[in-house]
Amino acid sequence: MFIVTSSPWRSGVRLAASVCLAAVGPLSGCATYSTGFAAVEAQLAAKNYDAALDAIEQQSHASRDKILYLLNRGMVLRMKRDYRASNDTFEAAKKLMDELYGLSLREQSLTFVINDATTSYVGEEYEQVLLHLYKALNFLDLGELDAARVEALQVDVLLRQFGGGIPDNKYTEDAFVRYLTGLIYEELREWSDALIAYRKAYEAYLKYEKHYGVPVPGLLKLDLLRLAQRQGLHNEVERYRRSFGIETWQSAGERAQLGEIVFMLHNGLVPIKREQSANVLDPSSGHLIRISLPYYQDRPSAVSSARLRVDVRVASTEVAEDVGAIARQSLESKMAGITARAVARAAVKAAAAREARKAAQQKSRDGSNESAIAAILLGLSVEAATVLTERADTRSWLTLPQNIQLARVPLPPGNYDVRVELLGAGQQVLGTHDFRQVVVRKGHQTHLWHHAVPTPSTLRR
To answer: 257-279: per-residue pLDDT in tens?
Structure first.
């Protein structure tokens, strides 16, 4: 129950009335952020990346959404394999995130009075981490290992910041970024650091299995055994062997004579935020109020996994990062706060409408017919504005994949043709992608990747 007792509350009511009236014009005819993304999705599914970039440019570029524009543009440039431009764009997004991290008091007050979508978007915690992940992947594709390592290490700082910020937050570690860090250290021959990174990845995957249903990848288990054995940590090797139930694996010496293909499937598109709203009657005032909350809607993909065929060797991908599950848990952990703000806004807006109606009634009793009519219209306008300005914040990084899957294939040095088979839920082949004359060097990783974006016919609205 909300009781109006103080002058600051009355000031808030007056502010709500004036702001709602000012905002209702531009907001009432606008869709939420996510509803305008269909054109981009269609072009990505068709692999028309230039057209997708054009579609992104044609979207509304409100200053508060600048980071989203940069994140989506950076991802499409990566899909286009323009790694340098992609990283320049991601870096611009990162700098803007740093600038906007502390929201202004004015933006916070507008969030309370109008809706959550009026603030500058700074990115969800997992989006800020994945920004560094994709910058690191770009650097790997450019052959710039040290720069890739810097991006992976910056995640440490971010995760420490996020750890205690949200009481129900389950995203306090990113297993896949830890795993990628281990891969980078291995390529740099920094074996001890690689093992440390793999240990952190293992600990994080144990939490992933509980929170997101992503088990510890079999590849990571083999890495832990191989690196612990290489470092002479016999007790650790024995502990892993018993825990994993693995009796044989390639030793570090055997692996040193080989090269390796590291393949990543960026599968599908992350769930999209939608708005669900309800117009209800406020019993204390008799006025109509609106509550709008975000929820996630799946963008299903027919592809469930991928299979690599290299010479006579076959390897299947494992899910290493379930971005969709992380996104859903992130929203769930924040829903209490989102709902509380929505209810509080509704109370303030209802009070504003009540004050406007009282003023209209007083004018109709004391004033001329013209002033009474004007007052009544003003009261009705405020009441309409309180409904029309309540929108859920449906903004998110929409070009992220649903999940990231991984396969690693050790090979003798040489040139190879690699076929990627995209598989459905029943392991049927839905499509293929070929990499010709891939160079595998002794003692080094060769990184390959593919984005599988669902066709428009599989995207539910």
So the answer is: 999 999 999 999 999 999 998 77
Give me 156's structure tokens: 């440490």
Flag residues of the chain having pLDDT under 70: 1-32, 60, 102-117, 163-168, 282-288, 349-357, 359-361, 363-389, 456-461
| Residues written for the chain | 461
Looking at beta carbons, which pairs linking 337-342 to residues 24 or more positions away fall under 8 Å? 338/116, 338/293, 338/294, 338/393, 339/293, 341/111, 341/112, 341/116, 342/291, 342/292, 342/293, 342/390
Residue with tokens 């008091």: 105
| CA pair distance 286, 280, nearest whole angstrom | 10
Residues linked to residue 364 through DSSP beta bridges, in sequence order: none
Q: Which fold has domain 7-216+257-458?
A: 1.25.40
Contact 33, 65 (CB under 8 A): yes
pLDDT at 2: 34
Question: Nearest-CA neighbor of 218 among 67, 320, 369?
Answer: 320
Rounded to whole angstroms, the Cα distance separating 346 from 221 reads: 52
**Structure pTM?**
0.84
State the amino acid at position 182 in one-letter form. G
Q: How far is CA 299 from CA 165, 179, 213, 448, in A?
A: 29, 27, 19, 25
Distance CA 197, CA 295 (A): 34
Max CA pair span of the chain: 96
Confidence at residue 26, expressed as pLDDT on a 0 to 100 scale:
44
What residue ranges do the domains of the chain occupy? 7-216+257-458
pLDDT for 33 equals 72
CB–CB of 416/310 below 8 Å? Answer: yes
The answer to whether 431 touches 441, Cβ cutoff 8 Å, is no
For residue 36, the model assigns a pLDDT of: 74
Q: What are 371's two structure tokens?
A: 């002033």
- Read out DSSP for 44-88? HHTT-HHHHHHHHHHS---GGGHHHHHHHHHHHHHHTT-HHHHHH
Give SS3 for 56.
Answer: helix
Alpha-carbon gap, residue 221 to 260, rounded angstroms: 17
**How far is 247 from 229, CA to CA, in rounded Å?**
13
Pairing of strands 305-310, 414-423: antiparallel
Dihedral (Cα; 266, 268, 271, 273), 10-degree rounding: 100
